[in-house]
Amino acid sequence: MSEEYEYDDEEVEYYAIRPNKTQIKKDMAVLFALSEEMSELPAGQLKTLELPEIINKAVVEVSGMPHKGARKRLLKFIAGQLNKIDIEPILEKLSRIKNKSAHAVREHHIVERWRDRLIAEGNDALTELLDEQPHADRQLLRQLLRNAQKETEAGKPPKSSRLLYRQLKELFKVEGEPDDEVGFEDEQEDD
Questions:
Q1: What InterPro entries would the database entry show (predicted)?
Q2: pTM recorded for the entire structure
Q3: Which of 56, 163, 177, 181 is most buried, by CB atoms within 10 Å?
Q4: Over the stretch 91-106, which tens digit does the pLDDT of each residue have?
Q5: Residues 73 and 107 in one domain
């Protein structure tokens, strides 16, 4: 029963492939989320993304808007503009910014733990710190530690504690690493 089928080229009809609407919606949702994420960045970090001018203006404008309908419309506009360009370089730069921020938070926690430990344990912790960091300014650290302990005992504002934090931050700074996150770390310090 093997029959050969013959097709006449004139009878074959070709149809245009319709775009998958679900996939388009998913892609736009990703771009919308990206535009929201960019709107939460500080101005300095936003500049490093090197966005086209129209997108940059819209992101700056949307960052100051309340979470209402107009903001959502502007975010949709940004997503539409992002859809027209290659977003891979933007995603790459955004990823680097996130990694730097994560590193800054880690560094902040290490320095904060050392400061709290120094104030609580005193000279024992200071000796351990100086063994770990032999290039540290011993005299300055001892003076800041004494003053911070006195402030803590007297219930005064933590001026010396903040100075101790800054000194420890400089001490733990990794050599060769640029200090790009100054604004982020200073915000954390005020907590």
A1: DarP, DarP_sf
A2: 0.51
A3: 181
A4: 888 888 888 878 888 8
A5: no
